[in-house]
Amino acid sequence: MDDAGVIEGGDVLVTGETIAEVGRGLAVPDGTAEIDASGGILMPGMVDTHRHMWQTALRGLGADWTLTQYFVFYYLNWGRIFRPEDIHAGNTLSAIEAVDAGVTTTVDWSHGLQTVEHGEAAADALRSAPGRFVLAYGNLLGAPWEWTNSPEFRGFVERFGTPDDMLGLQLAFDVTGDPEFPEKAAFEAARDLGLRVTTHAGVWGATNDESIRLMWEGGFMTPGTTYVHAATLTQDSYQRIAASGGSVSVSTESEQSAGQGYPPSWELRRHGIPVSLSMDTSVWWSADLFSAMRATLSADRSREHLEAHSRGDTVVHNRLRAEEVVRWATIGGARALGLDSVIGSLTPGKKADLVLIKNDDAPALYPLLHPYGSVVYQAGRGDVHTVLVNGRVVKHEHRLVGADLAGAKEAVGRTVEYARSTMGEEAWQDSITPELPAAERIPNPYTYTDFDGGDERHRAQRQET
Ligand SMILES: [Zn+2]
Questions:
Q1: If you measure from the C-alpha of residue 356 to the centroid of ligand 1, how many angstroms do you get, rounded to a whole number?
Q2: 440 Cα to the center of ligand 1, angstroms
Q3: Is the pTM of this model over 0.85?
Q4: Rg (alpha carbons) of the chain, rounded to whole number
């Protein structure tokens, strides 16, 4: 993902934490361990710029939720029952999952931190997990202008120490668009503390152009700001984001299913806004950045076709290429975090975060004719053969190295048991199976009976069942 582009038959030499050399036929210093990457693709570790890692503890529970049901579940009803150990459990499993899937850097958009003890648990989990992380500290049960300025939170920041490239620190909160702009004090706290802000922006029904305008007029749209989703905004807001140098974290699977707005990469490209990718939360969908790349490329192309069809045109050239989406998943994420001089490409001098995609026992990666196309459309998590983070091998030959997966699963099991018993069986089951409204069927003139109409016998039978 740097100017050297694709190097066929290349070698990468790692010394300590660092990529020492990249090229063909490199000399192998004595004592070097060799990993055979032939038949595979060695790429930079992927970067997920927005994942609510604590929610991995209830993986898959909300597969059929709407965004409203998500808000009701976490914000109104059950977010408050999560204890520090539950945050720790979710984060730990999510962290192991990330590196297993080739995601070497993850922003933990951690908005379940209702006390600093929860915050310590989140940070502890990330410190002991085998990956590179940014803790984006948030609290969905509190007011950001209050908790960011509380002595407890300031104490947490002091104890956290100096953020580094293995564990960074940001502030995570949303701007509701209240004309009083109470979030101003939270932005001022971020500025005082020297922390970047990540915010869910352009979310249908929740945050909108007013939020962007207030941030702009307050002078808080800094280049380091990440706008998550940014899917329901007008051109004016996109232009403010572009002009201020901020970037957008696109969560296509989330936007397609939860309805924050149409996945915005097609708009962002037109405005020259830098893009990174994210998976949002495993309570609904996967934590799989291959899936993010595939969904994003497909959604972007879908939109181009729809726009063209609405003009009576046909798309004859695809503007968005597989290479660009791989860029968003790697160096794009690194740039969004200000880490592009450290990670995001296989460049000598950068930290060695490497992913080897290789699966000799499966047909899907042969032949390798278009490496970017193979990464986006052919490869999956199961093809991640080897992963290095900061020069350390954390996965090799499809097996995790040095991660306590069994312990992480046990801890999540305890959280599931606790959540289920605290919620009660009815609420638990209702959460998994949200209400299903009656299906609307369009009357079909080619059938003998009107589906919802005059056939009394048919209707009586349906009522019996
Ligand atoms: Zn989110």
A1: 28
A2: 31
A3: yes
A4: 24
